């Protein structure tokens, strides 16, 4: 699903996805809000959005209705100006914050919690609303 498709084409793709057993949908930010799809287990953010609010909406596709879900986000040094906002989002959600992300937030500037907001860091974040602990991990690629 992407912005170059008209609304009827997007609706068709979404209907087919809901019927499919394949369970993989590739989408741009056009799918970040307003989609109601049950039982989404994973969201993969190939790029970190321009704002933390958009990030929250993107990962909100998973972990609904007392279900658990996992969101993976490639967060690079190029995103370091948004690191402080991401740390605040994770802390607000009572998620563990990786020490490297904290260091990046301290070095990289960025906002102070206003919820807005090809290098070697891959950022993985597990989002779990079922009450279990979630984990963040930086991987060196």
UniProtKB/TrEMBL annotation:
The record ties this protein, via Pfam families, to: Helicase_C (PF00271)
Q: Which domain of life is it from?
A: Eukaryota
> Where do the Helicase C-terminal domain residues begin and end?
1-105
**UniProt-listed InterPro entries:** Helicase_C-like, P-loop_NTPase
Instruction: Provide the protein name.
Output: Helicase C-terminal domain-containing protein
Q: What is the lineage of its organism?
A: Eukaryota, Metazoa, Ecdysozoa, Arthropoda, Hexapoda
